[in-house]
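Section 3.1 - Work completed
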Amino acid sequence: MPVAFVGHGAPSLALDAEKGAELSAWAMQLPRRPRAVLVVSAHWEDAPVTLSSTRNGTPLVYDFYGFPEALYQVRHDAPAAPELASEVTKRLAAWEPRTSDRGLDHGAWTVLTHLDRGAELPTLQLSMPHSASLPQLLALGRALSPLRDEDVWILGSGNITHNLRRLDRHGAGAPVAWAAEFDAWTAQALSSGDLDALVDPKRAPGWALAHPTPDHYRPLLVAAGAAGDDVTKVRFPIVGFEFGSLSRRSVEFG
């Protein structure tokens, strides 16, 4: 299976038919149907490594406020993935993973409502340890890479630029310079398979403004690690910006 990183943007993505159609089209282009989905979201940093609920019917996490009521009514009742949880636990034995009763957060379900419209794919979410460095997150992804051969679709969900204080809610047209520069730098590093650059982004143009906190960048490192030898086989199914500075760039490895 390929590995993906999805620029999830605002939670309202779940209700956005136009942006959702791009995600659905991407899923339709997969070489085969995934057996299960493993998601790493910017919105769950917990140590030690933790797995989401493996119980069917676990409620979603609506970890946002101030949005239309319709968004709080969105459901994504995908089957739980206890078998995948067992496999992940074995692969990550060195990380001493634990389980929880937590449901999928909006970094996961807002994209999956379009990538898996029928909520048919068994789905598991994995936390990122907040204490892990970027090289360690790359190593975490590498440990998960063999799951690709078992038809598991590994998804990172974040944003290549993410500064909520700099959003222009009414913005249209070209993005601001610092966002465009960091987005372009990341695309170049990905296209050339430059992992050394990706794990040391503080020297990149625009980094300080693109990521006041690195949480939305970190899932990209897990996805790049999970790509394994396919890290140089990169395409960008979705590009562009919203709100003047929030990159929508999404990545497929493999």
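Second construct:
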Amino acid sequence: MKNRANEIDFREVVNSWYLQNKRDLPWRRSSDPYRIWLSEIILQQTRIDQGLPYYLRFIKTFPTVFDLAEASEQQVLKLWQGLGYYSRARNLHYTAKEVAYEMEGIFPKSFSELKKLKGVGEYTASAIASICYGEAVAVVDGNVYRVLSRYFGVDTPINATEGIRYFKELATRVLDLEHPGDYNQAIMEFGAMQCKPQLPLCASCGLQISCVAFQLQRVDKLPVKLKKNKIKKRYFNYIVLLDHQHTLLQARTKKDIWQHLYQFPLVESNDNLSLDELTKKEDFLDLISGKSYDIRLFNPKVSVHKLSHQHIYTQFWIVELKEPIPNGIHRKNIREYPVPVLIANFVKDFGL
């Protein structure tokens, strides 16, 4: 009986807190599934303060799912540039075309059907189904894991199979069945603003009295997460070809990071390369193909671009050719291409 009472108190406190503290965000002023879907895809693995400008740009450029469907993939990737996890953008575009052309612009109206859309997992399907259609399905994201783990004192790892199943069951148990959409937003907002990962606001928290983690002084110990796999190190040598007016970009076509984005010709190596080592590489020799050139290293200090699962150690080699670049692009057009952030930063720093 005590656990049941705690669940009811928990739900009421979270809902009450949300009414008083929720942020005024544009997608919260709508129940349009296109806008909710777009916001959820953008905010996957992205903070709201970072994702909000992207959401506003996407809505302005593509006000309907038909507008997004009719865009080119390059347009979508360019608008997405800087958000990372670019498979999200490719899936976004794919699903927009599916909804626009095969479903007459009408999103599926149930959790089970929404889950069939490319790029829409359990969390996103739950959010859309509950917010747009009032379906009683619980969302479980990082914020929800943290709030539930701390309040109920659960130390089962949130990224273990057992933990994923248990927290979904717990989230469903405490769900507000009458107002699932509002409640789902409430618990996520509570985790983002009150029960924060670092320095949570326990002193002003309405759940303090019955929060297991607070009572046992384990707030900083929960939630528990299994250690990730070892970070992979990669070494990229970008060859920035320049003639009087042009440079060269190539699309990344393989199934790897940044698929379908553009970059300067790349020589990947097992370690940082010296000038002498680079100019003996077969990929470099094939690219230069006997041309006359001058070469210099732009960044003597190797830059490190950190992704969630790998670190990219990057050197930019400026190669000035004495003759025109075959199939080159005009330097003034380079900013039209969708590129990874480390390429965009170089373009800005170098002044292309």
